[in-house]
Amino acid sequence: MALPGLDGDHPLVLAPLEDITDGPFRRLARRHGADLVFSEFVSAEGLVHGAAKSFAKLRILPAEHPIAIQVFGSRIDSVVAAARLAQQAEPEIVDLNFGCPARKVAGKGGGAGLLRTPDLLEEMARAVVAAVDLPVTAKVRLGWDMGTINVLDVAARLERAGVAAITVHARTRCQRFRGTADWSWIARVKRAVSLPVIGNGDVREPADAERMFRETGCDAVMIGRGAMGNPWIFARTRHYLRTGVSPPPPSYAERVAVMLVHLREAAEEKGERRAVIEMRKHYRGYLKHLPGAARLRAALMTPESIAAVVRVLADGEAVQETRDGDS
Ligand SMILES: Cc1cc2nc3c(=O)[nH]c(=O)nc-3n(C[C@H](O)[C@H](O)[C@H](O)COP(=O)(O)O)c2cc1C
Hints:
With 327 residues, this protein is an alpha/beta fold. The protein folds into two domains: 12-243, Alpha-Beta Barrel (TIM Barrel), CATH 3.20.20; 252-326, Non-ribosomal Peptide Synthetase Peptidyl Carrier Protein, Chain A (Orthogonal Bundle), CATH 1.10.1200. Helices cover 47% and strands 13% of the residues. The protein contains 15 helices and eight strands. The protein has an eight-stranded parallel beta barrel with strand order 1-2-3-4-5-6-7-8, surrounded by seven helices. Helix 9 links the parallel strand 7 and strand 8 (220-223). The longest helix is centred in the last third of the chain and has 21 residues, at 306-326. The radius of gyration is 20 Å and the shape is globular. The chain binds flavin mononucleotide.
């Protein structure tokens, strides 16, 4: 079965990123060429207990489709109920998180903690597949630690449970985000199951995505940290896949234009002050590799209104122009 967003040639996917892949950023990623986007993970317990913060994460605007909503939890009944609630938001896919390494999640038996209880993981996946009418996918890591890599067993179980695709973040739980993702496991999972496999881990540049497709045979490439403050990565990668040429990174003016769209759309959803403050975590990505970026980023940590941000960015333009003129 062709999955929405994964049915084209070499699909590129925006990873689920807590506090990053909210609605405004997902829309930017889609506009810049992501074929499928993931929500931040949503707590099953939060949804079951009616937490406003969790329900806010189910809000989807038309420009975000196709989208997968990801839920996490350690109890089958809660995750099933949460998946049903997620379904009401009308995403294309419901995704199960079997990879979160955080102590507050994995330590309580959810996220990557489920890799240590494969029977429970399989039962949970089967129960969710039976409970919702949408395709259900799962995102896993290689295992808990290097000594207990069990991704091939987990992938076979997920296939038996009826999931529609698997994302493999090619690290163990104990690696968290350190070290290098071992893509050879993505290739092994791909050979072991007949489901679409989404490869994930350490794709930072267009050429990395091409290499992941080539070396692993994966059906889609998912980009996480490489997309933070960098929605252009999707269109640039598409261009690279078609031509073998990496387009230049966006100019300062292009970055500012997109940052301001991001900020204004976030302000519409969350209110101006909150949007301006939350935007601070995106500037590192948006300003990466630009001359004077550190100073500009520091200057962006104080404004509390969009107008003040615009003024700082305009001053930044003067810096960029001087530097360009100098070089
Ligand atoms: C800030 C941050 C938040 C993340 N939040 C989630 C999440 O909510 N759900 C999930 O499955 N993975 C989450 N991840 C993991 C990413 O989706 C991805 O698997 C990981 O970063 C490796 O891919 P990358 O090298 O392209 O970043 C998060 C990672 C980061 C850095």
